[in-house]
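# nightly structure sweep
# worker-07 picked up a monomer target from the shared queue
# config: single-sequence mode, recycle default, output format = structure tokens
# input follows
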Amino acid sequence: MEQAAPPSTVPLGNTSPGNTTDGKILTMKMTSKVTSKGQVTIPLALREKFGLLPETTVEFVDTPQGPRLRRAQGAVSRGAKIVDRMRASKRKLARGTDEIMTQTRG
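# output follows
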């Protein structure tokens, strides 16, 4: 008997015969081609459903049912990366009021 995939896991490949309800699992069959560089476009419906935004790190897992794609475990979130960049730029640009006024007045 096939076990249910974790909710954040997207089945890859032709593992199901179309859109069917199999117990508690709803599977969607969508196709995408692998490019010469090994890249695959994840269909928009799946990106939206699973919150796969640009810069999201994913990992491929080899399972007995076939390859699975999921959000990478322990990956730094998109929001954390943005906050880190903002903090780094603030440190680089940190100037005192007197310095800013001197540069403004010439």
